[in-house]
Amino acid sequence: MPPHGSTSTATRIKSVETSLTIIEELKRQNGATVTELAAAIDVSKGTVHKHLTTLREHDYVVNNDGTYQIGLTFLDIGGYALCQFDGIKQVESKVRELADRTGETVQFSTEQHGRSVVLAREAGHKGVFSRARLGKRFHMHQISGGKAILAHLPKERVQEIIDRHGLPAATDATITSETELFEELECIRDRGYSFNKGESTDGLHAIGVPLMGPEGDVLGAFAVAGPSHRMHSERFKDEIPDVMRSVVNEIELNLTYS
Amino acid sequence: MPPHGSTSTATRIKSVETSLTIIEELKRQNGATVTELAAAIDVSKGTVHKHLTTLREHDYVVNNDGTYQIGLTFLDIGGYALCQFDGIKQVESKVRELADRTGETVQFSTEQHGRSVVLAREAGHKGVFSRARLGKRFHMHQISGGKAILAHLPKERVQEIIDRHGLPAATDATITSETELFEELECIRDRGYSFNKGESTDGLHAIGVPLMGPEGDVLGAFAVAGPSHRMHSERFKDEIPDVMRSVVNEIELNLTYS
DNA sequence: TTCTTTGTTTCGTAATAAGAAACACCTGTT
DNA sequence: AACAGGTGTTTCTTATTACGAAACAAAGAA
């Protein structure tokens, strides 16, 4: 007899969710104390403490002078997940090559659960700022790489992703209309690469080129990003895309025979 | 009244530990099904299923065609933890520089919970194999970087680490005696850098140089590793150490004024 | 088709996670 | 030095809930 008339059996485990919430909050706050966490997520200090003790036991969190922080076990497991990605070594070296040849910031991302995840990243010598970071997630429709990937996913998959995550705006230029997005994707498919003109960050332009697997499936996308004052006309429309396509061609050939 | 006469109150949360065990097992097995996991960690299928559902909800695991895999959320959080490390950008660029100048594999690692964790890694053009990987953990006494760090930790801290993790052997050359280790550390402190002569992997030699913070605390260590047939005599004993020390000097200066 | 194996759900109960409050510990203040 | 105010930690009790067993569903294979 469940006292609170909810559906009797839950399909998720509450205490695990609490732990995950704590981790999320710890990341959001850049570290926190027991009391801060207890207040933030509305559970008792004692409970928070027990969760932290459990997580600390396995190095998922660490305690530096009283404040708890995210531990490097996440990097361990995340690094493992990264290595699982087929051809990641080659991708990393191509990202480097592109950064060297263009001088701009280059990243490679793939799709997981409808979000774009950064798997490799390299800042060129012109060293532009960038919000990207290993493992960082973005909405796919907001960035060049994400759009390049979407353009090569089955339409129903794209629809699923839209349904799940929506089309939130990051700037005034973000595509927020479903039909507009589908038109854009069509366009990208024809052209072979995608543009991002301040759709994720004001003043930031980028070019995205998809990486296709041997079976015609899209594995991810490379993106070269830089400030709009450097990324325009010929260089933006042709030169950099050409470099990118030749680099991606190489890696696609390598992946086929390995 | 606890039926099993154990100490009544636990300080850890069992269901969270189960989830963590599942994640660990998932990593160990390179993905697994519900039934496989249930068998491996000895809990019921139903329980495993509920854990996986909870973890999947937050993208900690993903389900590819029936088998569950580690998800990229770990990379997200791990990447965050990595960025928290002070001066990581400079460290990464110096690792690159060292890889370019020596042609060997270079890594930077720090200490957490008595283990050495790889924070940056770069293979030089001579491209030697290496078990290292972003986030990978090693026993500190088995590797050059780890020993370089230990040499600059307070003695009681080193003792703590030994007590917690022991001195397991990886090869015949691994240091397994406490007194021998302390002598070696003394030696490293005098010399300023450390050697690894096949102590972690047969045929692999490496040099470790500590990175010291402004307050005389050790932040981590760089290591240059290569096959023993390339890493010997002058090059091993002087040339590479000199390059490393000059690079580390630079970064130490930069860190002081930033 | 039927049989086998897997993933998922249901359900009752025994285990246990969570809160409240006491305790311990530190730090700064008066 | 004593104290006050804030931590983190532990204790204890109860209501919650996580667990296993078994039923159910779904998907291949024979």
Automatic annotation (TrEMBL), chains A, B:
Residues 73-257 form the IclR-ED domain. It comes from the Archaea. Residues 13-72 form the HTH iclR-type domain. SMART domains: HTH_ICLR (SM00346). Coiled coil: none annotated. Keywords: DNA-binding, Transcription, Transcription regulation. GO terms for biological process: negative regulation of DNA-templated transcription. GO terms for molecular function: DNA binding; DNA-binding transcription factor activity. Pfam families: HTH_IclR (PF09339), IclR_C (PF01614). SUPFAM superfamilies: GAF domain-like (SSF55781), Winged helix' DNA-binding domain (SSF46785). This is IclR family transcriptional regulator. The lineage of its organism: Archaea, Methanobacteriati, Methanobacteriota, Stenosarchaea group, Halobacteria.
